[in-house]
Amino acid sequence: MKSIVKERPLGVAGPVVGPLGVGTWAMGGPFYSGAGCHYPTGVPLGYGQVDENEVICALHCAIDLGAILFDTADAYGTGQAESLLGQALQGKRQDLVIATKFGNTLNRSTRELTGTDVSPRYIRQACEASLRRLRTDWIDLYQLHLGDLPIGEAIGVADTLDRLCDEGLIRAYAWSTDDPERAALFAARARVPAVQFDMNVFQDAPAMLALCDKEELAAIIRQPLAMGFLSGKHGSQDRRPSDDIRSRPPSWLPYYRDGGGSVEAWNKRLANITEILKSGGRSLVQGALAWIWARSDRTIPIPGLRTVAQAEENFAAVALGALSPDQMQEIEKLLDCP
Question: What is the largest CA-CA distance in the chain?
Fold first, then answer.
C-alpha cells in the first residue's frame, strides 16, 4: 500500500509549503573561495556552468507542478541564484515562500566568497541586497548560513533578526546548522519555525529530527540527493569540470574523488539498496526523496534543479509516496552490512 506524503506547514502556524521544495545552489553558476574564506583560495564552490534560460524554465515548471518553497542564499553564485530566482518569480511571488541565507561576505565581480560577517550592520546590508536581487519586499524565512557560529554570537544575530521582523523585511528566521544545540537556541525564539540541515539515505540525522518533533519545527532537508550522487548518474571514471565543487570535493562530500568521479565504496552501498529505492516505479532520485519523507512528516527536502526534466522528476515523486516501514527497515539492515 502506498504511503501518502502529507502536506507540510512551515512550523506550527506558518504557511503550508508542501512536502517538496526547490534548492537553488546548483543554478547559481561557478563561484569560488577567495582570500578570507575558510577554504583555500580558488576552490570551486558551485556546480559549474548553467543555462540561465533553462533554469528559468525549470523554475516555472516547478511552480506549475506545485512548488511553493524556494530555498536560496546570497552565497550561491555570489548572488546569481537569488537574481535568477527573483526573475523567475515575477508575477508569482504572492503565493510562494522564499527562504534565503546570510553570513558569508562576497565579491560579485570576482564571484568569490571572502569571509563571514554577522554584525548587525552587515546583516541588514545583506538582507537589503537579497531583497533587491529577489525583487521582493520581504523574505519569508531568513536563515543564518554559518552552521558552526559560536552560540554567544548567535544570540546577537537572533536579536538583529527580531528587529528585521519588526520592520517587516523578513517574516521569520532560522539557522542552517547540523548541530542540535545550536538549532535549539534559535528554536526557543518565537519567530523560528524551521531548521535546515543535511540528511539523506546515507546520512541520517535522528537528533535533528527529534529536536524538530520537540520544538514543532519544519525540517528543511539539504543534500537530500547527496550532491547528485543518489541520482545514480555519476560513475567512478567520470570527470567533472574544474569549476564544479565535485571536482575538488571538500571533506564533508565523501561520495566523490578528485576529478569528480564517484567513490567505488559508495557505489557499492548504493547498489545494495537500489532495488528498494526504485520500487513502485520510482527512479533513484524519487526513491531517495521517498526515504526522507518516510523518516518524518516534518521533512521538506529541497533538491536542486537546473533543468525542466529534473523539476518533472522531482515533483513526480510526491505522487509515488513515501517508502514503507518494512522498506525502511530493510534499507537500514543493508546499509549496516559490511
Answer: 55
CA-based R_g, the chain, Å = 19
Nearest to 112 by CA among 82, 80, 71: 80
Take residue 307 and report the three cell numbers written for it.
Answer: 533543468
- The cell numbers describing 215, all together, are 520544538
* Contacts (Cβ under 8 Å, ≥6 apart) of 115: 36, 37, 104, 105
| Per-residue pLDDT reduced to its tens digit, 277-314 | 999 999 999 999 999 999 999 999 999 999 999 999 99
Strand partners for 198 = 222
Helices and strands, counts by H and E, the chain:
10, 11
Taking alpha carbons only, the member of 164, 108, 119 closest to residue 141 is 164
Structure-block grid coordinates of residue 83: 537574481
Grid coordinates representing 184 are 535549539
- Check residue 170 and report its DSSP letter: B
> Which grid cell is 299?
521533512
